[in-house]
Write a structure and sequence with these properties.
Blueprint lengths: L14 H27 L10 H26 L7 H5 L6 E9 L6 E6 L5 E2 L7 H6 L1
Antiparallel strand pairs: 1-2, 2-3
């Protein structure tokens, strides 16, 4: 009954999405019920209890902030590979190194396992794509 008051609307023809959002909505309603019960047990705090909509918004904001912090930490840890034009085009000592890790190609943004030893840039080097040559010419 309470889950229908502020239902998370997500129209979809796929049943898995409907069930997913129903479970999220039910979990949010149950968490709000526990929040209300805990607030009643603490004396003097029952007057400023959040309603279901504000509780849902608060929980959503906290999840989004945690996700944003994780994304920012990941972006700050990433080493920028700014290769000067002169170094990339000098035509000397650019050797491809095949690695176990797969990173995004600098030119086509597909996953590549080839790393330029001098530039430290991941580039595609295969029979159908040769971003390594295009990048250095």
């Amino acid at each position: 009954m309470l889950a229908a008051v502020y239902r998370i609307e997500h129209k979809s023809r796929k049943w898995a999405r409907r069930i997913f959002f129903f479970i999220i909505s039910t979990a949010m309603t149950n968490a709000w019920q526990l929040y209300k019960r805990d607030r009643k047990e603490i004396p003097g705090t029952c007057t400023d209890t959040m309603d279901l909509l504000s509780f849902t918004c608060q929980v959503s904001q906290s999840f989004l902030l945690q996700l944003l912090e994780a994304i920012l930490v990941r972006l700050l840890q990433r080493q920028p590979s700014d290769v000067s034009r002169e170094v990339a085009k000098d035509q000397t000592s650019h050797w491809p190194v095949i690695t176990q890790t797969r990173r995004r190609c600098r030119l086509c943004c597909k996953l590549a396992t080839c790393l330029c030893k001098k530039c430290s840039v991941y580039l595609c080097l295969s029979s159908n794509r040769n971003c390594f040559t295009e990048f250095h010419n």
